Automatic annotation (TrEMBL):
It comes from the Eukaryota. The chain crosses the membrane at residues 15-38, 50-73, 79-98, 167-188, 208-228, 244-265, 277-298. InterPro entries: LAAT-1, PQ-loop_rpt. It comes from Pseudomassariella vexata. This is PQ loop repeat-domain-containing protein. GO terms for biological process: vacuolar transmembrane transport. Keywords: Membrane, Transmembrane, Transmembrane helix. One of its GO terms (molecular function) is basic amino acid transmembrane transporter activity. PANTHER family: SEVEN TRANSMEMBRANE PROTEIN 1, SEVEN TRANSMEMBRANE PROTEIN 1-RELATED. Belongs to the laat-1 family. The lineage of its organism: Eukaryota, Fungi, Dikarya, Ascomycota, Pezizomycotina.
Length: 313
């Protein structure tokens, strides 16, 4: 199969790598939108673990450095660079909302001390609810004040705002659209000759110091990726809630990781290349297991599911 070639000197393996890489790139470009909108609508980022984001950013920096040193597929290197940019954007928004809400919480605590005694139980209940997930009360208030249902916002933010809507179906349609757009993007670039080039990639020797350093950075990034989601999983478990998290954010991450790994693997099946790609394959495919844990938490901690179970009992 590797000897087969398409026009423009593109082999089948390179075409598959390009298609998977284009789908992955589309997923990662769209990755921020659901969570950024969810944070914006809630005016809070308390649903996200800052430790998760910090370790993720550190892993992406190591990933980019290692990809440059070892000469991975161009799509893999481009994605690594975009990862770093997207992390900084999301972390900046989270820090902004966390700082803003912390200031408001202090002001609220000071004003509470001067209120009349009969108002204290109501304020305490509201403050307790905010402790579990600051901004959740505000988000619920915004929902009730909406003048109508926005299906685009429902799909993008991963929030189920109507009793009859199917959240998982809406998100599945969004993921399907990512695959279609990503594949179409590669075919357009292929038709315009963007993939003209040599049949085999120019790779550095695995014995060179730069290649050894790249491998070390690759394994470091894989370790960070495997550990990054643990704080988020623990946070969800302690609070028994995934409120404030966009389901589509993690679905896009799963899609991006899967197609990213397929892109690296499809680029070349030569043993030397696969050995060099092991840390990136571990970092992308290994985190999918933790993504499924988070999906399970979304399911068991869903507020609507709890109400249905109580009603059935």
């Amino acid at each position: 199969m590797s000897n087969m070639a398409l026009s423009h000197n593109v082999t089948v393996n390179q075409a598959l790598s390009g298609i998977f890489g284009s789908i992955s790139l589309t997923a990662w470009i769209c990755l921020l939108i659901p969570q950024l909108l969810t944070n914006y609508r809630a005016k809070s980022a308390e649903g996200l673990s800052m430790a998760f984001l910090a370790v993720w950013l550190f892993g992406d920096i190591a990933n980019l450095s290692g990809a440059l040193a070892t000469g991975l597929a161009p799509t893999a290197t481009a994605l690594a660079a975009y990862f770093c940019f997207s992390d900084i954007v999301l972390i900046t928004q989270c820090l902004y909302y966390n700082t803003l809400n912390a200031r408001r919480a202090r002001q609220r605590a000071q004003s509470t001390a001067t209120n009349e005694s009969e108002e204290e139980p109501l304020l305490r209940r509201r403050r307790t609810s905010s402790t579990g997930l600051p901004g959740s009360h505000r988000r619920n208030s915004v929902r009730h004040e909406d003048l109508g249902f926005d299906p685009i916002a429902c799909i993008v933010t991963g929030e189920d705002e109507t009793p009859g809507s199917n959240l998982w179906l809406n998100n599945a349609l969004a993921i399907a659209a990512v695959h279609i757009v990503g594949a179409a993007g590669w075919f357009v670039s292929y038709r315009v000759g963007a993939w003209d080039g040599p049949d085999t990639p120019d790779e550095p020797a695995t014995e060179s110091p730069i290649a050894v350093l790249g491998m070390a950075l690759g394994y470091l990034s894989a370790l960070c990726y495997l550990c990054a989601r643990i704080p988020q999983i623990i946070k969800n478990y302690r609070e028994k809630s995934c409120e404030g998290l966009a389901l589509l954010f993690f679905l896009l991450s799963l899609t991006g990781n899967l197609t990213y790994g397929l892109s690296v693997f499809s680029y070349s099946q030569e043993p030397t290349y696969i050995v060099k790609a092991v840390p990136w394959l571990l970092g992308s495919l290994g985190t999918m297991v933790e993504d499924f844990v988070i999906f399970y938490q979304f399911r068991i901690y869903a507020p609507n599911r709890g109400l249905k179970n109580n009603g059935a009992a």
